[in-house]
Design brief:
The protein is mainly alpha-helical. It contains eight helices and two strands.
C-alpha cells in the first residue's frame, strides 16, 4: 500500500523534474509558456525543475493536470509517496479481478485518478474495503 512521507527534499523530486522537462521538450513548450499554462510563476517552475524546492500537493495537482499524468504518479515522482514498487496504472486493473460492475469500476478509476483529493482517498479506501469484504 502506498505510504505518504514527510516533506521530501527537493532532490527527491528528481523523477518529476526529469519527466516534466522531457514533456516540455517533446511538446516544444518553453518554461514561461508551461508556467503560464500550469498556473504558477515561471521562477517557481524553474526552481522545481532545478531541484531547488519541493512542489506541494496543490502544485503537484497542477503539474499532473498539465502533463496529463495520474496525480498519484506525480506525488510518487515528487517524493511525497513511497509506492513500494507499485505502478499506479496497475491499481485500477487489480479491481478487475474483483468482478466489479462497469459502473463501480468506472467510479473506482475516477477516484484513483483523483487520489490527490483527501475525500477521494477516503472513498477509494472505503470502496476497496467493501469490495474485499464480500
Amino acid at each position: 500500500m502506498p505510504r505518504f512521507s514527510r516533506k521530501p527534499s527537493p532532490q527527491q523530486s528528481f523523477r518529476l523534474a526529469e519527466a516534466s522537462k522531457q514533456c516540455l521538450t517533446e511538446r516544444n513548450i518553453s518554461l514561461p509558456q508551461a508556467a503560464s499554462q500550469i498556473g504558477i510563476d515561471a521562477s517557481h517552475l524553474s526552481r522545481l525543475l532545478n531541484l531547488e524546492t519541493t512542489p506541494d500537493a496543490g502544485v503537484c495537482n497542477l503539474i499532473a493536470d498539465f502533463l496529463n499524468f495520474p496525480r498519484v504518479d506525480v506525488y510518487a515522482k515528487a517524493g511525497w509517496l513511497e509506492m513500494d514498487g507499485i505502478r499506479d496504472e496497475e491499481t485500477p486493473g487489480r479491481l478487475l479481478s474483483l468482478e466489479l460492475e462497469p459502473e463501480a469500476l468506472t467510479r473506482s478509476e475516477f477516484i484513483f485518478m483523483n487520489i490527490g483529493d483527501s475525500l477521494a482517498r477516503v472513498q477509494y479506501i472505503d470502496l476497496l474495503r467493501r469490495l474485499t469484504n464480500k
